């Protein structure tokens, strides 16, 4: 069983990282899924994920964003749940300044926050990738919309696998196609800026340029923040 877009009842933007062209093959199916909020996940969804080979859920959101879905997952499945707040350090910045930037220039905000994820959230990033390395079986990592935090992690994983930058950008771009179907996302965007729901190529493209300029590639970045070569190797094995 292989999907590109996973047909879940309670989520809009759960997708494969498998199937992308790399040297001598493609990225593995059934190993990494990227996703949005699982707050409306159903028992049918949990069954499908387990049948698909997923054994781990990695939640990249902060405490305030998490609801009853954790209990639902733990009570109704054998999936291992782990939360690591990826933007925790970044969110300690003045909330008024962040809100002002979101409203006035959402494009600049997204570009800056993606780069800040690499430069200012190294501790959380290290924890995320060390956790991924030790997971047995497939993993679904997600945030609220499956665009920003999830998009950054997806870009690093695909770059680590050797996926072309154009494909990494394309993987990010399709996000808007799915999340615009979620009425909660649209309503939330109206409160701040509708620009937040777009997944323009330059958003993730600037992240990739920053990564190449400062670290050469994802593997060097992970080594720089303290992820061991052994753990990087384990992740690469899962990817390919």
Automatic annotation (TrEMBL):
GO molecular function: phosphoprotein phosphatase activity
Source taxon at top rank: Archaea
PROSITE patterns associated with the record: TYR_PHOSPHATASE_1 (PS00383), TYR_PHOSPHATASE_2 (PS50056)
Domain Tyrosine specific protein phosphatases: 119-193
A Pfam family the protein falls into: Y_phosphatase3
Listed PANTHER family: TYROSINE SPECIFIC PROTEIN PHOSPHATASES DOMAIN-CONTAINING PROTEIN, TYROSINE-PROTEIN PHOSPHATASE
Name recorded for this polypeptide: Tyrosine-protein phosphatase
Organism expressing this protein natively: Methanobrevibacter arboriphilus
